[in-house]
Write a sequence for this structure.
């Protein structure tokens, strides 16, 4: 009998190397079974592996692969060579229509992405070619021990899909690209890495002075160690800014993971600026080879070893790493995705500890599907969650909006690691709030800022940052930070700022920034100004004030720019109104006040599921995977990315045009991208300063359009320059 080909390549001496379809199916079944075994469904994973490529037995596919590979370039391909539907038809015959959700959709979709339920019948309505062997045994499937509710099914189905597609990718890679496959091996475990963290903590403690702040940080750390010896579940770590949450949460997570046999730590963070900082700290403790940094602006150049660089690239595909630092967007959009390349990583979230840092930033428009997904991952996949923040939101009990239809059941119980009697909000009180709701102009606020030698001012929009910065006296070190600057420019400015703050000879340091500096960035100013906003944002800004407690009780001033314009409608205005509704004579830093604040925000919300994920995903018989994935975008992609002129960005563009795109080149180029509104894009296009180098690759060619202080300018600098000449 002629060997049925699954994959084929020609080696360096011209010999054809064949992986048979039986070898590939057995290999994928073995891996998928192991992956699904992590949540006690190994037999189900085995079935997926066995059936997924049965269609490759067809004459049409065999002809196709021989022709495309060059093995038999002149062979004629007769008939439909698409193979995925055949395994789906067999799964339906063997396990019935009830198997569609866990077997059929996964198999027919393993190259394209999970389909909506109403597309499946059309895919299966094809005949199996006579040459395909359909005499296969039916596996005895175990019934999972966990109790599945209607809103759990889509997550379990997607997890089965993850097991299949990652197994398929990995087995194919092991045959076709042995070098890459080898790079995936030899990873450290959490147990191996814990001593490195413990040594770092001992070292920091030995070097720390005997300040009150350091004593509290040590108290927090010891409490985290004590509370790590607990069952898998939901936990919160509510510590005021500067209380040492990052390392304390990590030591809790690692000890908790070892105690419960969990395999990895995933740290999800809302802002890339914090991720870069956090990942840098973790790499210094655990080494480059043990920390995976996965987000859109990750810089591959920090890894000098090319082999390790390639290893990191491979790891971003499926998160098979002991410690992962990523964004909330990357985590949750993966959890709701339908694409094979994105879903690969999901099975590696099973048996993990997930730290959701700055958890108050979870978007309220998606709060119900997000919270429901956390509950499912805890219940079905043995995931522990730790919510860390200075401003803990309300995520448990009944979460109610402004109408009865908005209400949903949150998490049953969240265990707070820090006892109330610690009273950290009192012990770490280094700041008071001075709130003035009277409207100000840019000139008036600039005048107030100019009275301080060292001051940080945080505003709500890019426009406010630009217009306020323009009015400050250009003396000493005066800096602007906003997303009109590319990531590389922002990083350089933050580095410059951190160094400047450590140098006492720098008498004048004034900074105007958008919220990108608000959370998690380690900066310490004697005075902070914050434009009116929600209480959580105000307290985050206050966390940049007198961080080390060396100035007694400092002040964070809250001001309004209502003489210039009102706050943008929507979430920003609602959050500010929720803060205003709390009154004035209260302790803004008390945890109970934060609880009241979030309840005030919630009661203003008409819906916690704006894209109606319940409709698309919560009926097990009518799950719309593709539609839900398209709709679930935590950050609405309403803007357009443009490459700006900063450092060597134009050299990278030239390389891309000459050599074509590559993973490393695209990652390097992402440091020089600014996302702008469609209106601003049209303005620049009309000015003639933007060109499309390749499809979808827009470049701001005119160098003077990018200012070294404020980033991309939308004003017509070219016309101004012509007039001046």
């Amino acid at each position: 009998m002629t060997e049925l080909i699954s994959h084929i390549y020609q080696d360096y001496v011209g010999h054809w190397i064949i992986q048979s379809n039986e070898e590939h199916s057995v290999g994928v079944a073995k891996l998928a079974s192991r992956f699904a075994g992590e949540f006690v469904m190994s037999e189900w994973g085995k079935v997926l592996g066995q059936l997924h490529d049965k269609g490759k037995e067809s004459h049409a596919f065999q002809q196709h692969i021989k022709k495309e590979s060059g093995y038999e370039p002149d062979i004629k391909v007769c008939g439909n060579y698409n193979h995925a539907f055949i395994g789906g038809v067999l799964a339906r015959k063997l396990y019935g229509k009830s198997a569609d959700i866990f077997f059929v959709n996964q198999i027919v979709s393993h190259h394209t992405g999970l389909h909506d339920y109403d597309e499946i019948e059309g895919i299966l309505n094809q005949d199996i070619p006579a040459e395909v062997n359909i005499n296969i045994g039916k596996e005895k499937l175990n019934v999972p021990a966990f109790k599945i509710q209607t809103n759990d099914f889509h997550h379990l189905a997607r997890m089965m899909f993850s097991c299949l597609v990652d197994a398929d990718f990995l087995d194919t890679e092991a045959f076709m690209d042995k070098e890459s496959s080898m790079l995936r091996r030899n990873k450290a475990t959490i147990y191996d890495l814990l001593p490195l963290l413990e040594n770092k903590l001992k070292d920091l403690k030995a070097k720390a002075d005997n300040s009150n702040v350091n004593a509290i940080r040590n108290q927090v750390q010891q409490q985290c160690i004590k509370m790590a010896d607990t069952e898998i579940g939901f936990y919160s770590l509510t510590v005021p800014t500067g209380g040492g949450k990052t390392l304390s949460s990590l030591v809790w997570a690692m000890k908790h993971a070892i105690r419960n046999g969990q395999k990895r730590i995933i740290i999800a963070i809302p802002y890339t600026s914090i991720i870069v900082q956090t990942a840098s700290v973790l790499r210094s403790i655990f080494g480059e080879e043990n920390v995976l940094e996965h987000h859109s602006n990750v810089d591959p150049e920090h890894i000098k070893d090319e082999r390790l660089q390639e290893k990191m690239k491979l790891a971003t595909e499926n998160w098979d790493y002991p410690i992962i630092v990523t964004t909330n967007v990357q985590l949750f959009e993966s959890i709701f995705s339908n694409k094979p390349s994105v879903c690969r990583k999901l099975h590696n979230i099973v048996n993990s500890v997930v730290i959701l840092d700055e958890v108050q930033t979870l978007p309220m428009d998606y709060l119900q599907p997000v919270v429901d997904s956390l509950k499912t991952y805890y219940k079905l996949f043995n995931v522990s969650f730790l919510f860390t923040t200075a401003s803990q939101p309300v995520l448990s009990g009944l979460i109610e909006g402004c109408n009865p239809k908005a209400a949903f059941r949150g998490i049953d119980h969240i265990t707070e690691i820090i006892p109330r009697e610690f009273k950290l909000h009192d012990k770490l009180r280094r700041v008071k709030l001075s709130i003035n709701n009277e409207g100000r102009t840019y000139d008036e606020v600039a005048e107030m800022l100019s009275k301080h030698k060292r001051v940080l001012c945080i505003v709500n929009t890019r426009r406010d940052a630009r217009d306020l910065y323009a009015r400050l006296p250009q003396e000493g070190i005066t800096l602007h930070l906003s997303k009109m600057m590319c990531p590389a420019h922002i990083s350089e400015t933050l580095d410059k700022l951190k160094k400047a703050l450590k140098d006492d000879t720098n008498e004048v340091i004034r900074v105007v920034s958008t919220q990108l500096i608000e959370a998690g960035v380690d900066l310490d100013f004697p005075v902070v100004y914050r434009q009116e906003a929600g209480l959580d944002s105000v307290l985050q800004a206050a966390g940049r004030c007198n961080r080390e407690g060396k100035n007694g009780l400092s002040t964070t001033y809250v001001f309004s720019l209502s003489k210039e314009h009102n706050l943008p409608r929507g979430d920003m205005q609602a959050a500010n109104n929720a803060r205003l509704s709390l009154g004035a004579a209260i302790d803004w830093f008390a945890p109970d006040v934060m609880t009241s604040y979030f309840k005030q925000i919630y009661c203003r919300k008409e819906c916690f599921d704006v894209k109606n994920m319940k409709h698309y995903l919560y009926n097990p018989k009518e799950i719309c995977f593709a539609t839900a994935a398209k709709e679930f975008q935590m950050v609405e992609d309403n803007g357009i990315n443009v490459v700006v002129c900063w450092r060597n960005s134009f050299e990278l563009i030239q390389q891309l045009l000459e050599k074509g795109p590559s993973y490393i080149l695209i990652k390097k180029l992402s440091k020089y991208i600014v996302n702008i509104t469609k209106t601003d894009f049209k303005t620049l296009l009309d000015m003639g300063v933007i060109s499309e180098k390749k499809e979808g690759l827009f470049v701001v060619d005119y160098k003077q359009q990018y200012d070294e202080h404020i980033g991309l300018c939308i004003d017509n600098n070219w016309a101004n320059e012509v007039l001046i000449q």
The longest strand covers residues 431-439. The CA atoms of residues 102 and 160 lie 7 Å apart.
